[in-house]
# Entry
Amino acid sequence: MCRSHQERLYAIQTPESTPRAPYPWEAEGNLPRITKEFFRCKGNPANPPVLAEGVSTPLIDCEGTSRHGFPIIHGKEGIYPILIDLLNYVQKKTMKRVIITCGHRCPTHNAYSDPAKEARTSKHQIGAEVDFYVQGMEERPLEIVGLLMQYYLENPAYANDKDWNQFKRYDKTESHVTIQPWLNKEIFIKLYQKNEGRDADNRHPHAYLSIQVRFDRELKERVVYDWQKATRGYILP
# Structure
């Protein structure tokens, strides 16, 4: 192999890392806006009967949204609006998809999914609770907790009101989680780690967050489980 006497050598520049451009579906405008439809009960008549501890007969799942709608809230069928607002805020800030694993549960699906005694008064049944994680941030749930708190600091409706924009820690033992939950006047936040809070709607391997509504700003009253609301408070076909 021969070389020419006119050949020159050029120094090779050190490669630089270039951030990946977002895919089209990762742009904010391409993430679907969360609506009440994302909270539909996940009951399915094809699910097999299950035997639960302390229950003599097998539990049968509900027939799903073909047989019932949402709870009636503020005179309309739906979910507490703050839950929708918070999840859309998280999605906008992270530019990542929010995955709702459990929204509304009718009493039949609630018993099927989680037959534990403490779940009988779940606020999922009255449209006041949601379980979710953020796709791509499954290992960083505490960042999502921070964003939920940030929503109250940035929203003018809650400006300069400590009851809303300052969160406290819940230190009672009946929370059934190892990380102390957070609460303000309106919501209660629980973080379930990978080995906590598993039920039929949360069979995934990720940590997830649960938000419960504590106070109704429109009606200016506490939000608590009510048998009438849970069993007769939603539309039947």
